[in-house]
Every structure is written in structure tokens, then in C-alpha cells.
Amino acid sequence: MGISPVHDGVDTRTQPRLKTEWAMPGEHVVSNTQCRCNLKPHYSHPLPRQPPSPEEPPPLEMMRQPETRPISQDQLVAEVKGIYAGLVMVETKCIEVDNAQSSNPDANKLNNEQWQALIALHRTLLHEHHDFFLASQHPSASLPLRRLAAKYSMPARMWRHGIHSFLELLRHRLPASLEHMLTFLYLAYSMMALLYETVPAFEETWIECLGDLGRYRMAIEDDDIKDREVWTGVSRHWYSKASDKSPDTGRLYHHLAILAWPNALQQLYYYAKSLCVPIPFLSTRESVMTLFDPIFESDPRHLSKIDTYFIRVHGILFSGKGDDNMLAVAMKEFLVRLDGTIAGSTKKWLEAGYFMGIATACSLLGYGMESNVLMRAMAQRSDETDVAIDGSSILQTPPSKSFTQALDFAAKTYDIVLRRWGDTNTLPFIHTILVFILKMTQYPTGISYLEKSFPWKLTMAMLNYHLDSCDFKPSMDNFPSPEKGERPRPLPEDYAMRGLTYAADYHPKDWFGEIDEDEKYFELASMTDQRKERILYLGYKIASQGKWLTFDADSMKFGIMPAYDVKIDGAADPSLESTLDLIKSEEDSGSGEKGC
User: Fold this and answer.
1) Which of 376, 353, 519 is nearest to 426 (CA)?
2) Could you say which of 243, 278, 304 is where a domain stops?
3) Domain named DNA/RNA-binding: which ranges (predicted)?
4) Cβ pair 502, 366 in contact under 8 A
5) Bridge partner residues of 279 (DSSP)
6) How many domains does the structure of the chain reveal?
7) pLDDT (tens digit, 9 = 90+) per residue, 43-81?
């Protein structure tokens, strides 16, 4: 047949490759050594030929490539049928054994030989699956034969009956089963890694399974912190790779949220994102409480005060726990610290900024709740601007109390950040918020809930400041792209926004190419100009609608519609003009950050 099973526990990816010369049958094999010997020497006097030593072994003859025979479709079909019949028998046995052990209260009393027998049984099932995939996905296989694996849900069955059920059995028998669980984890990981390389048709499934196995391995490591960190990184790598291939799948962001501990701000971002993508992961609504509950009860030591209050606000808005006073205190404590934190964090607030910006936008979407007024507006058909999918008028639907509170918090947060428009570390936050606002302007019913609270005048001043400080002509008519021939270089927040419902049409096609995970979130000096150009592009797109902001092409200035030309409150900003002049003078004297 030419289809060989995997040897027990061997990951062929890690085996050394022999350096051999290959030739077709009947061809003469010329090695590198022979080639070098045929070169003419650079010296004029030949060296005397040495007689062969009697102790030297005779030269080895190189073996020719083994002859391979083609396989017919009938042979492949027969092979697949035979493999599947054996696979079903082993699968049935695994299901019976796992169910029996799960319901057996004396399962803890299994001895080593019994555990090894169970491992051998599940290993056999994994090998049967491997043989099935190799045969059904053979290069000579017909299309109907290739479709069999998907038709019979073979990848899912392999994970469920060959790996997951047994892992759960082992997990519930910890710590007595620890050694056996480690053995099986390495076995399963090796098999998945092999399938990832040899069966690309189900690459996305193998990638997520590798992430799951890495998370299992991380979770049971209590003794060695370094090992735990290594496996956390391994699992994160596979989940990130999976999310790149399926950015609309919320389940992957939920798993990344778990791995983000102890970075609570990043956890909040991932949890919120898992609910605000086209395929939300609804189980997040339960698991996210493991982040919120401890913050309701006390102030965790590993969190800064400002992160604690920010997450507490979102926890109250999300769960409804706590009273209005608790929410008001948390909001106030966050807002009074925000300006000073941005100033003190400097470059560190680049990442924190887009985490907070995305979480803030998700809070306005009710964390993906279908009853949220903005979610309903986005779900309506384009030809029904005022009527929801259930026939009710969205404009007549009053927003919920939690939406009103979330909007108040978002507007005040954005207001404080905008007043630091000369601080380039605020650009990622502003970028993510404007992407959200631009999307909402496409839905009249959606923007109607936001437009009266959004600080349009401060936004206008910020846009004019960045426009005046640029020493190049920004691209505002079209999405700013690299020069012709250059590869796109997405911003870190581009990856963070990828997949979100409100960012679906923002990036051009093929904007996200293949890039190493470590490079995705690496900050480059040139990204400051890219962010400014992107923000100006978003401002121009909003202004081109002529409803909130305006743009004068002759003077190259942003303006504002009279309805939103309000007086700016706050002693820190007596007038926009004087503040703008102050920032410009500071830059001219070298005390401020240079613009574009």
C-alpha cells in the first residue's frame, strides 16, 4: 500500500535527517566528495599517491532509492475501508472504557499496568486515525475519498474520543495520575504535530488542538514555574496562529484570555473581544467572572489601582453586580488617575491604550448582547434603517441603564485622552475609538445614541493639530497603504481589532500577511506617523458625511457642525485655540514630542 503507521510516541519532526544523495533508478549517483575530487588541483607538482592502508575498510556502496509502486483507486478505497473498520472497533472500546472509568468511584485505584493499558488503547486509536488520514488524503485519492474525513467528522472524533475524554479522566484522577497524564500529553502532542505537517487539509483543527494540549500541560504544572511559562507560551503561539486563520471565532480569544493571566487588562480585552466577533463564544459570560469576582471583593496586589478601577467598572456594567454608588466611585477613581497614568507610563500606554479602547467599544455594544441598541442597529438590513429585524422601531427603543452608564464612562474617558492630543502615546486609544465611531456612522439608528455625548469639538481640535504638525501630505481619501512594492506592516492595534464586528470592513484585503508572532506587537518608530495618518483618514471619512465634522479642502482644516460647536468645560482647557497654541510653542522649543 505504501501507507505506514506512526511508530509509538515518535515525533518525526524531531528526528535527524540523513544527508543522502538521491537519484532516479538507472541514474549514476555523484556525491559531493566525488565532485570535489574531480576538480583540478591548484598546485603544479602532483603529490605522490599513497598506497591504501590494509586497515582501512572497503568503501561503502550507496543504496539506490527504493522502488515504489503506484496505487490504484480501488486499492486506496479498500485500504480506507479496512482502516475505518478497525478504527471504529477501537473507538467503540475507548468510549466504553472512558465512560466506565468516569462513572467508577474506585477508578483512583488503577495501578500502573492498568493506566498503561489505557494509554496503549488510546494510542492505538490515534494511530488508526493517522492511517485513515494518510490514506484518505493520499495524493492519488479521488475527491470523494478526500471528503470522507470531513463527512464523518474524523478530526472531531479523534479529538473527542482519542484525546479529550481520556485527558479529562486523567485530570479528575490527579495527582495520582500525573505521570500517566504527562506521558499521554506528550504522545498526543507529538501526534498532532505530525498531523499538522502531513495532513494540511485540516490544518486549522490541528493548530487549535495543539493549543488545547499546551493549555492542559500548562495547567497541571505546579512545581516548575519556568516550565509553566514555556507551555503557556506554546499554547499562546498555537491559539494566536489559529486566530489569524479564523479571526471571527470568539472561542480562540476566550482561550487567549485565560493564558493572559496575570495581565488583567489584556484578559479583559480578550474576554470582551470573544463576545464581539461574528462567532461569539457565549461561555465567556460565565468564565469572565473569574476575572471580575476577585476585583469586586478586594484590590488585587498584582494590579495597579487604575487597572483595578477600570476592570471593576466593566465588571459592574457587564454583570450588574454592585449598586450605582459602587459604579460611580469606580468611575471617579479611574478618571482622576487617567491623565497622570498616561503621562507617567509613556510608551507603556501604547498597548494599554488599545486594550482600553477596544474594551470601551465592546462595553458600548453591551459585550455582544443581542438586546443592545447598537447591536440591534448593526443587525438590521441596510434597507430598513429605522426598523429592527423583529419589526420594532429601534429609534423608539430607549437604551438600557447599563448602556447609558457605559456611554457616560466612554465619553469621559475619551475626553481626558483627547486633551492630551500632543502625546503620541494616546494615538492607539484614539485610533481604536475612531474605528468604532466610523462604523457607527454607517447606521443612523446606531449613531443617534452616541452623537450627543461624543466630544466632537475636541476631536476636531485633535485632528487639526495632527494635520498641522505633519511634514508630509497624509493620505486621507483612501486607506493609507505602503509604497508600491512594499509589504503591508499592520499596526499592533490592527491585529488587536482584527475580527471585531465593528472593524470588519476597515482593513483592506490581504492587509494581514504572514508575520512572526513576536513581530506583530513590536513597536517601530515609524508607527507614530502611520497612526497619525490613519487617524486623519478616519476623521476625513467621518467629516465627508457632513453631519458632525466637516473638512475644508482649501484651507486643509477640519471644522464642526453648529449643533456640536459647544463650549469645552474644564479649567485645563480654557479655550481650544490657546491650548493648541501652547502645545505648538512647546514643540517649537523642543519641550514637547515632535509630530509627523
Assistant:
1) 353
2) 243
3) 236-500
4) no
5) 249
6) 2
7) 444 444 555 555 666 777 777 777 767 788 888 999 999
